[in-house]
Amino acid sequence: xxxxxxxxxxxxxxxxxxxxxxxxxxxxxxxxxxxxxxxxxxxxxxxxxxxxxxxxxxxxxxxxxxxxxxxxxxxxxxxxxxxxxxxxxxxxxxxxxxxxxxxxxxxxxxxxxxxxxxxxxxxxxxxxxxxxxxxxxxxxxxxxxxxxxxxxxxxxxxxxxxxxxxxxxxxxxxxxxxxxxxxxxxxxxxxxxxxxxxxxxxxxxxxxxxxxxxxxxxxxxxxxxxxxxxxxxxxxxxx
Length: 239
Hints:
Radius of gyration: 18 Å
CATH superfamily of the largest domain: Vaccinia Virus protein VP39
Structural class: alpha/beta
CATH architecture of the largest domain: 3-Layer(aba) Sandwich
Oligomer: single chain
Number of helices: 6
Helix content: 25-40%
Strand content: 35-45%
CATH topology of the largest domain: Rossmann fold
Largest sheet: 7 strands, mixed
CATH class of the largest domain: Alpha Beta
Number of domains: 2
Distance between the termini: 38 Å
Order of helices and strands: HHEHEHEEHEEEEEEHEE
């Protein structure tokens, strides 16, 4: 359960892209394949609009939370790696929100995913992938500067706090660091570091890789940054 809490705390409050995904699903139709669905931030928003959604993620604990939240909505979950999944279905729309494509281990991982997506995409069909190719670097780990405020939530008497402390250039990508703190009802404090590597990829590179996988670049859509989240470019591809 704590894994789902951290996921919600650090990702679940992001809503700037939901209007775009809703409009795209309304235009293209379903069923929709949501890649890297987590606890259902996007999948539930689309299902509440009446779309049938298949949600995949490699973490069953997150998908279990999504199943609990979906109730009678038309959401099907599948534990699978985005680089190697098989469904006996094709989709008019496949979406990859919130930089999930940048968690796949570089060009080789993206190529594996694009091969899977191409196989599962109807003709005509749309594959829409959100990327952030530039991040603002900062590091407050050894600084007196306060840095970004933490995200905080209380669950069953336990307080969870997650504070971004650094975004660093890291070879072929970026390293995102957060300090996670948990305070129990009796005041016990525990702290851990969470580190995520995001691959660096720009829209031109992604379109070239998609073309090699048999897809056609269609258009791009910009989603503006918010006070707490970076902006992104959604690269639209067609079968």
